[in-house]
Design brief:
alpha/beta; Rossmann fold; 2 domains; 17 helices
């Protein structure tokens, strides 16, 4: 067969395209398509490949024997099914049989027609022999013509039509139909079945079905005018192996490449959709943490407001008592009662007042702090629980049993599993919900914490704050007031002392406000940060996935562009 120079150049470009297509299939982890493209590459320079399919005992082997005109039986024919493996029949200078595996053997024959074509004789589509259909399907993508062989008396076997759907819908291969054993039917009945096959093929999506009623028996016995094999050979020469055969084979390879690219596009879209959902999941985690942080800070605000209201009420009450006690009648009364030690009596009263203030602080503010911290603990607990729930309900699109997603799904599943386990361990450790800034090292924590687990014990942990003196977070207000009161002399000025008290109280209030905000807001932020740290591996996986998808899409677009250009060049040569 003479091939023009332009077709040779186009074939070289096509081979280069298919090589890059195989590389893309391998990079994205699509083992099945990579194997298909590999077979396509191997057979691009081989003769035209015809795949013979049909049910057991449809007469496939007899058809092959007659088509090859070898003058002898090449494919075994017997009353019982004989083709228990795929037989690839190829040209060879001498006859030889090579068993590739238990399911495939290659038969080499010095038959001239095999210089232009290779025949693949397959097990029946209704064969129950393990893996036959699977291996048959592996030959379809690289085939140049699929010949469906039916018994002339019954062209409606369901298994054959199921396989037809695979070939036509999945790979869009050139298909012709053969009604074998026409010699066993009357012309009228044969015409009825031929018309029925035509209608059935159109119904199943074939625009212009091509049908050849043949008799392998008549051909092998030399009754060529009755066998109709000449029509089959004329069709093959005209539409497959003729003058434009090389270009047509090249077009077939481009069509198969386009089909494979479309499959890759579909799978990349699925992969991109999984990435999109994982990003949404991650964003949802971030938004949930932000939202829960805001709720927790709202509890902090309420707690601070409640503590400050109590602080104001206590200091105002003591302030009024101080002001009243420093009035002239009160001072006169104390002077009379402590006539021998006037200063001492005033000092005693001021000390009592100072102790009263401290007792009221510790009684009321400690209780308010304890109650408010429990609410804050509940909020922190909800933060952790919400994140745990979202981790367990993350959405999965890719399937682990899909070739392209096998590695991705395993990596993603392992990352999410590790995330669940890590977060479970995180919640079970009480120290993850404490902070040195809030809980000094010498702050005692209830021993029953050890019996608890996870976020359920946060309330107990946080309650440890009540072991810190309330006065520690008032900025030393009692110290300031103590110094103020200790400086009292007999020549006391009521207004100066009261104003000094108010100044100390205001300073203590501001210090208390600042300390509470710093400690409690920082605590919320620390816990949020600790929760967020659990997502480091997931973030790394998503960053890597984003990079890979972008690279694969770029590769895909480049291949698609090259395929279109090559198709235009080939079209102009046909």
């Amino acid at each position: 067969m003479i091939i023009n120079q332009r077709t040779i150049v186009l074939r070289a470009k096509c081979e280069d395209l298919v090589k890059d297509l195989q590389q893309l299939a391998q990079e994205i982890g699509h083992k099945e398509l990579a194997a298909v493209v590999g077979e396509l590459r191997n057979r691009m320079s081989e003769p035209f490949m015809f795949v013979i399919v049909g049910e057991v005992k449809a007469g496939k082997s007899s058809f092959v024997n007659a088509l090859l005109e070898a003058g002898r039986e090449i494919c075994a024919v017997a009353p019982q099914p004989m083709t228990d493996s795929i037989q690839q029949i190829l040209f060879g200078d001498k006859e030889d049989v090579v068993s590739v595996n238990p399911y495939l053997k290659k038969i080499f024959l010095p038959v001239d027609i095999l210089r232009d074509i290779a025949i693949v004789d397959t097990p029946g589509t209704n064969s129950i022999v393990e893996r036959h259909q699977e291996i048959t399907e592996n030959f379809i993508p690289a085939s140049d013509l699929v010949i469906f062989v039916f018994e002339a008396k019954n062209p409606y076997r369901q298994s054959a039509w199921d396989f037809f759907s695979f070939i036509h819908q999945e790979w869009h291969k050139k298909i012709i139909f053969v009604l074998q054993q026409k010699d066993l039917m009357s012309a009228e009945d044969l015409a009825v079945n031929e018309r029925g096959l035509f209608d059935h093929a159109k119904k199943n999506g074939l625009a212009e079905p091509v049908i050849f009623p043949v008799s392998a028996k008549a051909e092998l016995e030399g009754h060529y005018d009755q066998s109709n094999f000449s029509a089959v050979r004329d069709y093959i020469r005209t539409h497959v192996t003729g003058g434009r055969g090389a270009a047509l084979k090249l077009q077939n390879n481009l069509d198969t490449s386009a089909n494979i690219l479309q499959r890759i596009r579909t799978d990349l879209d699925t992969r991109a959709e999984q990435y999109r959902r994982d990003v949404l999941f991650r964003d949802d985690i971030k938004n949930t943490l932000d939202g829960q942080e805001n709720k927790s800070n709202h509890h902090v605000n309420l707690l601070i407001e409640n503590l400050l209201n109590g602080y104001d009420r206590i200091t105002s009450s003591v302030g009024r008592e101080l002001s009243n006690g420093l009035s002239f009648p009160s001072l006169l009364k104390r002077s009379v009662m402590g006539i021998f030690s006037k200063q001492a009596s005033i000092s005693d009263w001021l000390n009592e007042l100072s102790q009263k203030l401290e007792l009221m602080f510790n009684a009321e503010l400690r209780n308010k702090l304890n109650e408010g911290v429990v609410d804050l603990a509940d909020s922190i607990q909800q933060m952790a629980k919400m994140i745990d729930l979202k981790i367990k309900s993350s959405d999965t699109v890719v399937k682990g049993d899909s070739y392209i997603f096998e590695t991705i799904a395993e990596r993603r599943s392992a990352t999410l599993k590790e995330l669940q386990e890590t977060f479970g361990r995180f919640m079970a450790r009480s120290e993850n919900f404490t902070a040195d800034s809030l809980f000094p090292k010498d702050a005692t924590v209830s021993p029953n914490i050890a019996a608890g687990s996870g976020a359920a014990i946060i309330g107990i942990v946080l309650a440890a704050v009540t072991n810190i003196s309330v006065l520690d977070i008032t900025g030393g207000v009692m110290t300031g007031i103590g110094v103020l009161f200790a400086g009292i002399t007999a020549g006391i000025q009521r207004r100066k002392l009261v104003n000094g008290y108010k100044d100390e109280i205001a300073r203590g209030r501001a210090a208390m406000h600042e300390a509470l905000e710093n400690k409690l807001r920082s605590y919320v932020k620390v816990i949020k940060g600790r929760i967020a740290e659990n997502f480091t591996d997931l973030d790394a996986m998503l960053a890597n996935e984003e990079t890979q998808i972008a690279r694969y899409n770029e590769h895909y677009e480049l291949l698609t562009s090259r395929l279109k250009e090559l198709g235009k060049e080939l079209e102009s040569s046909l």
